Amino acid sequence: MYRTNTCGELRLSDAGRRVTLAGWVQRIRKMGGMTFLDLRDRYGITQVVFENDNNSDLTEAANHMGREFVVQISGTVTERTAKNPNMPTGDIEIIADKLTVLNPSLVPPFTIEDDTDGGDDLRMRFRYLDLRRNAVRRNLELRHRMTMEVRRYLDSKGFLEIETPMLVGSTPEGARDFVVPSRMNPGQFYALPQSPQTLKQLLMVSGMDRYFQIVKCFRDEDLRADRQPEFTQIDCEMSFVEQDDVINLFEGMAKHLFKEIRGVELTEPFPRMTWADAMKYYGSDKPDTRFGMRFVELMEPLKGHGFSVFDNAAYIGGIVAEGAASYTRKQLDALTDFVKRPQIGAKGMVYARVNEDGTVKSSVDKFYDQDTLRAMADKMQARPGDLILILSGDDAMRTRKQLCELRLEMGRQLGLRDKNKFSCLWVVDFPMFEWSEEEGRLMAMHHPFTHPKDEDIPMLDTNPAEVRADAYDMVINGVEVGGGSIRIHDSKLQAKMFEILGFTPEKAQEQFGFLMNAFKYGAPPHGGLAYGLDRWVSLFAGLDSIRDCIAFPKNNSGRDVMLDAPAPLDPKQLDELKLAVELPEE
Amino acid sequence: MYRTNTCGELRLSDAGRRVTLAGWVQRIRKMGGMTFLDLRDRYGITQVVFENDNNSDLTEAANHMGREFVVQISGTVTERTAKNPNMPTGDIEIIADKLTVLNPSLVPPFTIEDDTDGGDDLRMRFRYLDLRRNAVRRNLELRHRMTMEVRRYLDSKGFLEIETPMLVGSTPEGARDFVVPSRMNPGQFYALPQSPQTLKQLLMVSGMDRYFQIVKCFRDEDLRADRQPEFTQIDCEMSFVEQDDVINLFEGMAKHLFKEIRGVELTEPFPRMTWADAMKYYGSDKPDTRFGMRFVELMEPLKGHGFSVFDNAAYIGGIVAEGAASYTRKQLDALTDFVKRPQIGAKGMVYARVNEDGTVKSSVDKFYDQDTLRAMADKMQARPGDLILILSGDDAMRTRKQLCELRLEMGRQLGLRDKNKFSCLWVVDFPMFEWSEEEGRLMAMHHPFTHPKDEDIPMLDTNPAEVRADAYDMVINGVEVGGGSIRIHDSKLQAKMFEILGFTPEKAQEQFGFLMNAFKYGAPPHGGLAYGLDRWVSLFAGLDSIRDCIAFPKNNSGRDVMLDAPAPLDPKQLDELKLAVELPEE
Known about the structure:
The structure is a homodimer of 586-residue chains.
Chain A: E1 18-31, E2 34-41, E3 44-51, H1 56-63, E4 70-79, E5 92-103, H2 120-125, H3 127-130, H4 134-156, E6 160-161, E7 179-181, E8 189-191, H5 197-205, E9 210-218, E10 230-239, H6 243-262, E11 272-274, H7 275-282, E12 296-297, H8 299-302, H9 308-311, E13 315-321, H10 329-340, E14 350-354, E15 360-362, H11 370-379, E16 387-393, H12 396-413, E17 424-428, E18 433-436, E19 441-444, H13 459-462, E20 471-476, E21 479-486, H14 491-500, H15 505-518, E22 526-532, H16 533-541, H17 571-576, E23 579-581
Parallel strand pairs in A: 3-5, 6-9, 11-17
Antiparallel strand pairs in A: 1-2, 1-4, 2-3, 4-5, 7-8, 9-10, 10-22, 12-13, 13-16, 14-15, 14-16, 17-20, 18-19, 20-21, 21-22
């Protein structure tokens, strides 16, 4: 037995007990004839005192301990004279009588403190040291608590967690698969699942009724800051349900998590917003509704006054930044630069201030008289002291997305995106399809198994681009934490869907025959949803990136810099797999 | 809303209620003017009655329903006249007034009954129909309950579930890895983890203190009946522990599972047996201790009496089959054939019956006098009516393994291997190394991170083959359900271990440098264990194979016959991965 207690649990009521602790040396300070050692483990920090007068050899030994040494210390719990109310163990200290070094440590390459001096790369290379920091460890503790609560909740609702295979077949529809060569079946490959979508649908066909799984999924995509090649989904599916049944159940789960994990009691139903409204008022299918600043379409007051930029625009829209009329020219120029960045791509920005006397002063005053500007301000419900920001463009959807970025930036600048405030909503009635310029055809906006809205089914033949789906996303603070849909359970409708997506019947059968055949043997109506665990933990932890809620994340090149993976294979392994690497000449 | 209730919940107290159920048609029978329809879902079966006199159209429609049609039925809960005490819903039936076909079904290729007429191949191809059978579904429900209990237990003991990556580096030590080509790093490969062994050790270095994960692991092995290329481990690791700490905690978990899942209260500590004793008395490192029949070494009484088979043997050992003296010559010949099968490989079998008068009648009477045979029987504590079975050979270990198979077969024949009886034990003190004929070197018996017993460390230099490890397996009914060890936490000892295993320092650094380096920054003493979830569920479910506790298992060629995976890739995918398949000429 290495310890009687952890470094986080001793209290004043333990005074007088002889205890043994084990942990890491956080810091050491000599003060007069005493040496103070802060001993750290996952559970906390306990102060240990070595008294030179009583035990000079031991104190001398303690003085030689380095940061991050692993030591075992025995001693007596004693009330502190100078208590530290900021530490749970701050009322006591251990008067040491024994010290054993369990393992020494080199000087760590960065400090193991909440505010470390280690840069990102170094911290990732020594991730096992980075994880010793409270800030990072707490994220993993939060993640554990969240998955425990998810499981408790879904178990209480009759869901079964069922593991689906990781070695499945490759389905070129969707993102790129990671593939796994099969040695026993040379020349053939498994794929790692992008999601257990078809398998969970088969579980519904098999009558499992309520399924969930917290499961790794894989996508071989070019990575952005908030993407990982492997990520974790809370994957759920239910039988004999309509959209409202799914939404109600998982809204209940979200509320449960908010209450248990964040201590936030959400009593109201989450608002529901159609995709069309989300695009119209926020330019995004995942609007951040912690603040208003909804788009106001301004074609009517502003078009046709001789300002060619607006006169030629397919869309003119603006937002009202409350109380921001005091923005300086420099700040406004910076905003213009912001929307003109290539990632956003606006050509320019028009602004207008509402003065205290109600007059409006704009950057395009030479084209507009005061009446027109006032009409605009009225339409936007702008009040004295407000700032109006306007974008326009010849592609309405693109302009709305630019205005969305501007709105988010203004929300940030005005402090309206408080990480401790949560605004949840459902976005519903997504379009079934979206046009892919790259592929030159309609693609499924969610996936090819999504059920069209019953009333829109006739349009599948006449105007598929207008068909809406029984699909829904849960959005919190502008983050899509989950999404799902009612699925097709009819093999004929599924076949039609593949046809619209440009599959020949043979190709559809080859790739999804197992599912369409299954539908012929009594498939129940079903639907479900998947939450992105990484995103949700990040949201609850107040992180900007999902990376710090993942124990061993990969970098933007898909590399694990700690393990140095991926790496070239032993040629013997390639031979066994009947594979050759064919790199292009440099 | 598709249903007001499930098919498993209505009781007599619901009589008079109007309800709507949805589910699958299990069977239909016409009796006089009534049609009885058994409606099934995951939760049970409810009898529905259609009365021709009251509603002939509806009854006519019901008569046209086929097996496995998905239907929605509304009606009134009514007390049955002929109750069925074998069904939880057997007191009531639904008098139907509405019937909607939600989805028809083709005639299923096998019957959806506990005893199905479907063969293994057919059931696997239509696994989604096979899973509708109670027998299979119950295994998945059991699996869910077990993982819930494991998580509850470990959470209550302060363990954190931490996800480790699935895309890691390949480590040729151990079994074969499945590999994953990286498109973003052409010519380089990830590997799928055989276990999170090194990553959980890094989590200990990071101070996580108590880690667990229920996690998929992968081994590209040639498959046997009870192996799958992907399998699930309950993977655990603890810091600041000695062997007893780990054993006590996980014995507690096993007892918790026995109690919660099987209703079996195990109050005694599990016995511990050294590996040496397990081999000596049972010829196996995972003895089935539900029954005795321990080996008795018989060199002393039987060698040197002119029976050349025994005289030349390096090992002679026997077992006593209680009360089996009545075995016929035919039964004994069958046993001889059993041990001579190539999989077992014994040259022959000697037997002896202990008669009611205490005399011993053996198959080698011409070489042994009655005194010798009686001395043998006495040494074996055989009593009148018992049967003695003896094997011998020139390789003691091999002969013991043959005798082990014979013992298990006799246990089976004598009904001593009751699936509802559980005998648990720990096998401890495993050898550190075993000699590999194939590799011509010592190999780690568990893995290269296992800590040698402190008292044996000096032998690492002088006689490594004799070194024992701080390793332990939990064995239940002859099944190794889990195993683990105390790990090395000292980078120098770890380096020495790699040296003994034939690694050059460069090779060790290349493959395990990340771990040995981590050990230099304050690694705590640590150890852990991993349970095989599939095996444990099978054991609790009384299954002979792990396959039926896995939703979508693979066959012995590693194929998923339902998904038809693996399969050849689209050439475009290979191009993107810079890979070429090089199949040998036929």
